Task: structure prediction
Amino acid sequence: MNGLGPAAGDQLRTIVERIEHVEEEIRELTEAKKEIYVEAKSNGFDVKILREVVSLRKQDEKERDEHENLLDAYLHALSKPAAAAKAA
Amino acid sequence: MNGLGPAAGDQLRTIVERIEHVEEEIRELTEAKKEIYVEAKSNGFDVKILREVVSLRKQDEKERDEHENLLDAYLHALSKPAAAAKAA
Amino acid sequence: MNGLGPAAGDQLRTIVERIEHVEEEIRELTEAKKEIYVEAKSNGFDVKILREVVSLRKQDEKERDEHENLLDAYLHALSKPAAAAKAA
Amino acid sequence: MNGLGPAAGDQLRTIVERIEHVEEEIRELTEAKKEIYVEAKSNGFDVKILREVVSLRKQDEKERDEHENLLDAYLHALSKPAAAAKAA
DNA sequence: CACTGGAAAATGCCGC
DNA sequence: GCGGCATTTTCCAGTG
Result:
């Protein structure tokens, strides 16, 4: 016995194919992204700076989220009756 | 002067938006992929092995052989008692 | 009242300091480990394979066999044309 | 030929042993850390809160660092003559 | 084409 | 003992 049921082969094939399909789409989009950068470059943009801008916008967002999380964590810890208050 | 033409701002905005859109699609597909694995798991498949299967199908035979040869060489070198591991 | 005794603050401080101290030691060792790999690499070793060797030595034979059997079962199920993959 | 020099076996063994030694030390420290938490718990502390405290102290530090980094990044991007300023 | 940093995956730990 | 979470490890795109 191997832990697989009777019709496992078919199911397995379906699953693997679905995964491979999704991965193929991801690869295509990654390629598309690369091409956008190439096109931008050919229009005179500095690719490095461009990446930096995109990255900063992501980080800004993340920063904002983390702030909220941190705040929540503190509030949560403080709402606990005991040890948290001592620690503050 | 900065080396960019007059409507560079608009162009820049468009570019950044296109990139962010593509990245969003990639995120969604990555999420979809994760869900396929979760679903597979709930159907009794071993996710780790499943990933290994998908990964193996990506490598062509030659690469696989090369990898195994290299790994064998290391293991063999390790099993030798002393400095007898000549580069055969 | 919070369920902690009077000198809980001191105790807490001590505990937190001990934990942070241990974590610092772990960080240092992790760093040392990284350096060993870097050194090995600069001596011409393939780091990826090296990691694989170390990892293989961790698994005992039994686990390795079980893993291979399971992997074989999956690959076998995949190679079958239809739903013939009975749980043997 | 396999990419390994003549005395590779000895060198390899030494490297692997050093790595395994460091990993053993890390395991011991990780164990020690776990025991500190167990001990704390037996002294009436809430382990979950304790972890939260340790983690918050780490995050606080990181947050401060990241703030500086983010600020630096912006300043850096702005000091670039062209595209960055448009993006601001 | 080797290095680096950031994303994805594996592992280990905790509470149910 | 299983699923979710945090930590660690591995992988890969991007850069010089």
Remarks:
- Chain D is about 85% helix and 0% strand.
